[in-house]
Amino acid sequence: MIDETLKSGDFTERSEPFRLFAEWLEDATKSEPNDPNALALATVDPDGMPNVRMVLLKGFDERGFVFYTNFESAKGGEILSAEKAAMCFHWKSLRRQVRIRGPVEQVSDAEADEYYASRPRGSRIGAWASKQSRPLESRFALEKAVAEYTAKFAVGAIPRPAHWSGFRIVPSQIEFWHDRPFRLHDRVVFTRDDQGAWQTKRLYP
Asked: What's the structural domain count of the chain?
């Protein structure tokens, strides 16, 4: 479904961006061949150098946008240090993009436990076996670690590692972009004010 507010070019009637994002994600789920929830996640390291990589969105609501990772990985350490990040969704089939940025908070243990328990067993083993982002001497070393943890957790539940959990970007700004002919694209940015209300303005393409 093409959003009628977007289609008419009138974004200003919307009081908040989450419903519009939900509609766009629903559209992408129907049209994208792979991973409509894929996003580019941007962080900054302690030296101020930016980093970006693809991750998957695992949930969102009015509190923010959630993804999960190893907190001892490069992105985990950078987020824990800077406590801010940005993400970008690009849905090529729809010619749409959404950019989000803001401070980052950790999800609750209950949220992390629930999502971890929903993962395939192999993925739960992988969370234990992979020392994410650190040097790997050989593929065999990784496969050996997988085998060791598979044996360790052969029976019963696999507990969530303490170093594996989720982050939530609490958006201070969300920008929607929609392709238009002759590069006269629609760009509308929602910015949260000090009272938590969303202010909307249109940008030149």
From this structure: 1
